[in-house]
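Incident log, support desk, overnight shift.

02:14 A customer reports that sequence design results differ from what the structure should imply. Their input is reproduced verbatim below. On-call engineer (initials T.W.) acknowledged and began investigating.
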């Protein structure tokens, strides 16, 4: 009995599972950082539970955005994944805050849009730049 190596299934996109997990983890960590920074700026108590209470609507918004956009297909893409996750995180997060009786005022919406935009788009831009740099160096 002989075996052909052409029949051995190959893993497509090696590391893509790791990239998906890293991108989802980065999104969650940055949303938690946003909540922590905001709570610290307003000198609120209840450190861990307070951060989670502030972050959960945005984490749910990010999760919903990942599902709707099927972000796992291109988790580090700036467009449409990054922009969609950013805007979905803020929109769903604010909606959930409103329906659960948490504060939703225009200044907070603006701060959330700006801060989460910098966080969720910023690391994707950084990764893209590093990838481009590495690719350029390999070609040189």
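02:41 Re-run completed on a clean worker. Output:
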């Amino acid at each position: 009995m002989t075996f052909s190596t052409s029949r051995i299934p190959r893993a497509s996109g090696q590391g893509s599972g790791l990239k998906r997990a890293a991108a989802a983890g980065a999104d969650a960590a940055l949303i938690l950082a946003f909540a922590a920074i905001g709570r610290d700026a307003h000198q609120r108590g209840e450190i861990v539970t307070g951060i989670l209470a502030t972050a959960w609507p945005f984490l749910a918004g990010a999760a919903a955005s990942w599902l709707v956009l099927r972000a796992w297909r291109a988790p580090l893409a700036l467009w449409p994944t990054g922009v969609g996750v950013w805007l979905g995180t803020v929109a769903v997060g604010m909606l959930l805050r409103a329906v659960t009786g948490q504060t939703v005022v225009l200044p907070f919406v603006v701060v959330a849009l700006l801060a989460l935009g910098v966080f969720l788009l910023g690391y994707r831009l950084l990764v893209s730049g590093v990838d481009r740099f590495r690719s350029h160096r390999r070609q040189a």
